[in-house]
Design brief:
mainly alpha; about 10% strand; 3-stranded antiparallel beta sheet; 3 strands; about 50% helix; 7 helices
Length: about 180
């Protein structure tokens, strides 16, 4: 008797933890999901390494995905190797804890801000997620992170633009280029 039960579209599949294999795959997956491949409608996140600055902590990056589900699946699969944590920590346990939070996020059982808070707590000494959303939010949003990003953009250009100013079409290409280096 076969089981024809359809898998829910937003269900996250948790794969067997293999840190070495995930780390090997990560570079190629990141290249496919960087801002240079951005098209309208993609969703992204910004994360940074939660290590001491002397060993690269604090540097961050955006990654972009075709769907919220794909973003969640990526985080479930690769969060632990985005910025590998201290060796004295149980990486498998962190992987499992974050994956469970991501499953709740993808299913809509937890809000994005709450998920970010819980992921960051579980991922202390690994990566920290500062933002999840769409580019339009960075261009037009009034939230703390979009406002901060636009402020840095205008400062880097020495423009007279206001922090609350939206990124106009005339600045969008420059803004996308700026985002590729934001956090580095």
């Amino acid at each position: 008797m076969s089981n024809n039960k359809k898998e829910p579209k937003n269900e996250i599949k948790i794969k067997e933890f293999d840190e070495e294999k995930s780390a090997e795959e990560l570079g190629e997956v990141i290249r496919k999901n960087d801002l240079e491949n951005y098209t309208k409608g993609k969703v992204g996140f910004f994360s940074y390494s939660d290590a001491s600055p002397g060993i690269g902590g604090g540097s961050g990056h955006f990654l972009w995905f075709d769907s919220f589900h794909n973003l969640c699946q990526f985080l479930a699969d690769y969060f632990v190797v985005l910025a590998p944590g201290r060796l004295d920590l149980d990486h498998k346990k962190v992987y499992e804890n974050v994956a469970e939070i991501i499953k709740e996020l993808a299913a809509g059982d937890i809000s994005t801000p709450k998920a970010i808070q819980e992921i960051n707590k579980a991922g202390k000494h690994f990566s920290q997620i500062e933002w999840i959303g769409e580019l339009d939010d960075l261009i037009q949003g009034d939230g703390e992170f979009p406002t901060k990003v636009r402020e840095y953009f205008f400062e880097s250009r020495e423009d007279e633009g206001s922090v609350k100013e939206k990124i106009g079409k005339e600045h969008q290409k420059a803004f996308l280029e700026f985002l590729t280096e934001y956090g580095i």
